[in-house]
Amino acid sequence: MIIDVVGAGSLGLLFGGKLQASGERVRFWTRTSVQADQLKRDGIRITEKDAEIHIRPYEIQAYPISQLANHWNKTPGDWMLLTVKQTHINDFIEQAATLTLEIRQPFKIACSQNGLGHLEKLQAALPNALLCSAITTEGAKRTKGEVDRAGYGKTLLGLSKSLAKMNVGIIDEQQIFTLARVVQQAGFDCTVSNEIDKLIYRKLLINAVINPLTAIWRIPNGELLHMKERVSIMHQLYDEAMTVYGAMNVQLEGDLWDQIQGVCRDTASNTSSMLADVLHKRITEVESINGSIIKMAKEFNLKVPTHEMLFHLIQGMQSEGVS
């Protein structure tokens, strides 16, 4: 199987590296040629609790995303793992649109983005693609080509019901089960879920409560629980989002507030992706995370003032011209 990993961040390198180590043919697609050259120069080293994987430089296939059509039109892949952030979805769509129609029709994409909106955007641009959502609790930290598998979690694949109706006649769910088996063989706990939408909303809620506050206060996830003032604002964000979910009839299992605190404890030393973007002066995903909560609230004439405040604060922290 040929698997194309779009994005060379921590999760992209973790999944791509282990898939290649398990015998799959993997191609990495980076935002710039400099990043691709660095991978081919340094290789990939993955450190796990009981093993170390080293993909040597000469074994790496890495290209800038601008060369996607050149390679895909000659040798199409079987699955594409889209691990870029929401902020770079448009760059991927621009390149995917240059593929020939015959190549785009069997396009199979597993999407792991935070927030909402990316599936609809991809569906509009690539109407014949099979779009699969990928939710993972794997933890990884990257330093150049070295990846530390910091946390062992679960990966769930599934079809969003909102898109499934649009894909009638071209969806072959067995292909998703095949991808899940391949990911399992690479050393991940991966299964297929028929309730992926609930998991997407759960992930959105967790990110909307944790990420902006860590970015504002510039603290790792676990420190959110160290002061009652921080916990109080977390709960405000939680209550506002749950009111919106109630209006939408989004029903999630278990005590979500306890789950959010559990994520803070389980990822206590982690730097959230939004904090990392702020520290590196990059555009954040606040629009697709808290912005999604705000958008849904407006549809039901609901007020989410804490989300709106943090949304504008994070947007105001982004320097002009950042990428």
UniProtKB/TrEMBL annotation:
Record-annotated membrane-spanning stretches: none
Documented EC number(s): 1.1.1.169
Residue ranges of every copy of the Ketopantoate reductase N-terminal domain listed in the record: 5-159
UniProt keyword NADP present: yes
Catalytic activity: (R)-pantoate + NADP(+) = 2-dehydropantoate + NADPH + H(+)
Enzyme class, UniProt record, top EC level: oxidoreductase
Domain named Ketopantoate reductase C-terminal: residues: 196-318
Pathway given in the UniProt record: Cofactor biosynthesis; (R)-pantothenate biosynthesis; (R)-pantoate from 3-methyl-2-oxobutanoate: step 2/2
Keywords: NADP, Oxidoreductase, Pantothenate biosynthesis
Family the entry assigns: Belongs to the ketopantoate reductase family.
Biological role: Catalyzes the NADPH-dependent reduction of ketopantoate into pantoic acid.
Protein name per the record: 2-dehydropantoate 2-reductase
Species: Paenibacillus cucumis (ex Kampfer et al. 2016)
Record lineage: Bacteria, Bacillati, Bacillota, Bacilli, Bacillales
